[in-house]
Design the sequence.
């Protein structure tokens, strides 16, 4: 199948999942996870109707930006972000999905302040408490949300999660449901920016329909759009 056919299939699946949940398909944003993809492949995806690209690695983000590969689409940063690479991402990514510590949050706020802009962010939550994954605890997410609300140069847009890998269909729905409830709880405690909290980023190639059923507003899809990833090169 061509990239155009893959994009069409994923969009049709998103729409069907939304309608089955009684939701408007227009509420769901498709973010193409472009990790290890070439400039040309990214351009093909955008030409096929992709409006948001999500990058995992700072080095790839920088290279694709320099090549103009994202022209015609937004770019989000969806991977782990080290504080020493914040300067390369703030102001370049429309949305940073992976904020999981006070140190990173403060670094983003500081860099955005130097640039005179407001950086949109999501808090990454390790909803299953997996030791092998990044992300903050639900309690820490509440604390970080309160801290972000008082900052001048970050805007908290919502939450992101990557639940455990499971071969069983529907196995992650409890984690998605827990994320939806946490999203509602945190948004309800925001004194000033409740209207800004509009993004719940969860669901990938293997489970995005389940994520939509449980309230996701943004799904990050790579393999279902591009096929199996080629081998990664060292940074």
Sequence:
């Amino acid at each position: 199948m061509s990239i155009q056919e893959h994009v069409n299939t994923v969009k049709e699946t998103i729409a069907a999942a939304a309608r089955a949940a009684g939701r408007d398909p227009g509420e769901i944003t498709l973010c193409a996870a472009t990790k290890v993809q070439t400039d040309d492949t990214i351009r093909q995806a955008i030409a096929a109707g992709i409006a948001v690209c999500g990058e995992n690695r700072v080095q790839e983000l920088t290279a694709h930006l320099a090549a103009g590969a994202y022209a015609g689409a937004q770019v989000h940063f969806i991977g782990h972000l080290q504080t020493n690479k914040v300067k390369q991402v703030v102001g370049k990514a429309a949305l940073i999905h992976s904020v999981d510590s006070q140190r990173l949050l403060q670094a983003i706020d500081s860099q955005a302040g130097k640039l005179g802009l407001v950086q949109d962010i999501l808090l990454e939550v390790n909803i299953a408490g997996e030791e092998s994954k990044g992300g903050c605890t639900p309690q820490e997410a509440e604390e970080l949300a309160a801290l972000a609300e008082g900052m001048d140069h970050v805007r908290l847009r919502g939450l992101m999660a990557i639940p455990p890998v499971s071969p069983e269909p529907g196995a992650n729905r409890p984690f998605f449901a827990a994320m939806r409830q946490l999203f509602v709880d945190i948004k309800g405690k925001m004194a000033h920016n409740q209207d800004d909290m509009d993004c719940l980023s969860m669901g990938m190639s293997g489970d995005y329909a389940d994520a939509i059923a449980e309230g996701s507003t943004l799904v990050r899809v790579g393999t279902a759009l591009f096929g199996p990833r080629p081998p990664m090169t060292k940074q």
